Amino acid sequence: MKVLLINGSPRRHGNTFQALETVARALQESGVEAEICQLGGKEVRGCQNCGGCSRRKDRRCVLTDGMNDILEKIWAADGLVIGSPTYFSNVSSEVKALIDRAGVVSGANDGLLRGKVGAAVVAARRAGANFAFAAINFLFTKCEMPVASAAYWNMTLAGAPGEAQNDAEGIRTFETLGKNMAFMVRRLRGQ
Q1: Can you say whether the dihedral through the CA atoms of 14, 150, 186, 144 is positive or negative?
Q2: Phi, psi (5° rounding) for residue 143?
Q3: pTM to 2 decimals?
Q4: CA atoms within 13 A on the CB side of 109
């Protein structure tokens, strides 16, 4: 069993990454393999609504900007955690591109995301995190993915890189999320 965690922040080791690391640790301690994949900072484009993936039905997007490498990892995983910083009360542009393209390619190929466990992780300096959190969860619910949760929304309030380590409630939330996600992945895979 494996969960792919995607860092949608261009800050490779910033607060979004640190939150994802906490979730990954909890997954691994619960016996589930976890891999963090860097998306933020890559030059990826949004969906062009060209219909190419519907015509080809090869589990890939026709755009050749590197997104297909990430999509392959998503299709192979049992669960998906998408992490994003909050930019103007929404996800990063890279995460938005992932949401649109993963959703469209999944739908064009008989629901590649269906049944995978999903979870959103969001970092915000102060406000707007609920909108970013919702944007990610819209993908999961649209694609028939069960959503893992914690005792609070999966977010950290942190501005400068490293401040997520000072958010004790956020850390507890991410640890709980990792444990809950591991439980769901195991149950859905019959273990």
Answers
A1: negative
A2: -100, 15
A3: 0.97
A4: 20
